[in-house]
Structure formats: structure tokens, C-alpha cells
Amino acid sequence: MKPERAVERYLKERKPEVSESTHYNHACTLNAFLEFCEEEGLDNICEVDGFHIHDFKIFRREVGGINEVTLYKNLCTLRVFLKWCRSMELVDSSVVENMILPDLEDDARDTMLDAERADQILNYLEKFEYATLRHTLFALLWDTGFRIGTARAIDVEDYHPEEQYVEIRHRPEQDTPLKNGTRAEREVNLHPWVCDILDDYLQIHRNDVTDEYGREPLFSSSRGRTVRSNLRMHINRVTRPCHTTGECPHGRDQSECEAAQDYDHASKCPTSVSPHPIRRGAITHWLNEGHSKELLSDRMNVSAKTLEKHYDARSESEKRELRRREFGME
Question: For residue 112, what pLDDT is reported?
Fold first, then answer.
């Protein structure tokens, strides 16, 4: 079976079983795999072996320019796909069983935007890109820890400036599903400084358009609701250090750096981040401020157990200092 046909059948079978965002992510990863297959001349999925998987890792690092965390997720998706291929008797069992994934126990915690960098980016945006879509998106993500799909789903009418909160609603039939479905629906308070940015964005910079369902998306383009990839690109661009400081911590010549010169390749900067590290950094910042995990669990739509395992990136020293403050031992 040709790789394209195998991927097509796999995605069709999984579509009703997984969330829209998961299906989208699987499709993106497997499209990269198909690109690799074409380049390698691999036209039969039954011929996939360990060497192909090894070469795919190199392909994603060197051609895709992705970081190790993204590579790990790509390989997890590829493994799920190959397990499906095995169940269809298309690939040998050893191909799946012998797959080696990188150990990301440390990387998972390190991949986050810390409070110092967030303040640096916010100060830059306040001065040079005030109330633009990029400024508004970054401020909202940092204040709320929203997933990018959640931010995309917000309509203008979901924002309540007088009460200073935003409603989050699951509307899959209108192209704005939430990862956890109706369980993710909630009302989230906003800090006044975020509301100031939102108010000015709505008045000055938002494209006054409706989407195909007649809704007014908060984050809009000239064509309607902004797509996820465009929102991710804004975050990749603004989190490059050279964008906000003019300096490169990696010693690169910016005039020759693809990530610095080409907005479409901003993610190739080793220090730029996607939206999820902002979520992790925001949650860690709220924890460092002394807020309880139970309250943050509701605000961020994440279970306390998952928050503890995947989002609490505080060091033991930071936890100790927080306990010192809370117990009045200063």
C-alpha cells in the first residue's frame, strides 16, 4: 500500500475517535512523514524499517527545524500510526516495538516561557506593537494560560469588559471545538491590564468581520476567524530574542539567520516557543505567586494531577521560598 493511502485510511478511521485538534496534529505530522517518504522514494508502507524511522528523525530536525519536544511528539504520532499499520498487517511488529523515543523528562519541564522573558516581551509589545493582534494574543495567553484553540474560539461577545472576564464555550459544529469539550466551558477573570489591551485592540486593530457562521471572532483576519497556524506563527515570531532585544543569544549573524530574516521560519530559532510553553510558564508563574492548584485547575482547565505532573515547573528552591512566605517565616 502506498504511504499516502495508508495515512488517508488511518486519518479517516481516527477522525470520529479523537478531538479535532488531535486529528489536526496527527494530520500535520503524517503529512511531514509523507514528504519524507517522497524524498526517500519510499512508495510502499510495507517497506518501512528502523532505518527509515532514524532518517525521519534527522529529516525533521534538519529540514523541519523542530525542537526536541516537537520531535518527540512527532515520533509518538508516527508510532501510533505504525501500530495501526501493524494491526492492518502492513508493517512488521518489530518496527513498532523497536522504536526509540528521546527521554524528555527534563526537556518537558525546561520548555516553558519564564516570567522574566514574558515581561520582556510584554514591555516590547507595549512600546512598539501596542494593542495589535500579536500583543493582545500574547497578553491573553500569558494571563490565562489558555490553549491556542481556546483563544481562537473566543468571540467578541464572549468578552465582558465591564465585569472583566471572558466566557469559554465549546462549539464544534461551528469550527471552534475545545480540547476537553463541554468540560472546558467556563468563565475566566482577566487582570485589568489585559482588559485595557483588549479594549484598545477591539477599537483600533481588530478586523471588523464575521466568520462563515455569522459570529464575530475576537482574533480575526480579513477573511474571518484566524486559523491556528497563523496564531502559532505570531507566537513563534514574538518569542525570538532578536525580535524583542535585537540580540541573538546563540551568536548567530542575524543577516544570515533564516529564523531572523524569514517570518515563516521563526520557529527555527532555538529560543522561540510555541503557545504551549507559554501555558506552562503562566501556570508556573501563578503557582509561584502562591495560588492554589485547585483554583488554577479550574482556571486553566487541567486536572490537579496533570498540573502537578506536566505544568508545575518550579524548582525545589522556589517551592521552599513560597512556603517560607506563606508561613510568615521571612
Answer: 81
Q: In terms of domains, do 98 and 221 share one?
A: no
Give the domain-ending residue among 48, 74, 102: 102
pTM comes to 0.67
- In angstroms, the Cα distances linking 12 to 6, 17, 64, 84 are 10, 10, 25, 12
The DSSP-derived string for 177-208 is --TTGGGG-EEEE--HHHHHHHHHIIIIIS--
CA 299 to chain centre: 18
Cell numbers for 96, please give them. 513498532
Query: Looking up cell 507559554, which residue turns up?
Result: 278
- The three cell numbers of residue 264 are 515563516
262 and 231, same domain (yes or no): yes
Q: Are residues 23 and 127 in the same domain?
A: no
Q: Which domain holds residue 267?
A: 115-275
Q: Which of 37, 71, 102 is the endpoint of a domain?
A: 102
Buried b (16+ CB within 10 A) or exposed e, 90-100: bbbeebbeebe
Q: Which helix (H) or strand (E) holds 223?
A: none
Q: Tell me: the pLDDT tens digits for 107-164?
A: 444 578 888 999 999 999 999 999 999 999 999 999 999 999 999 999 999 999 999 9
CATH of the domain at 68: 1.10.150.130
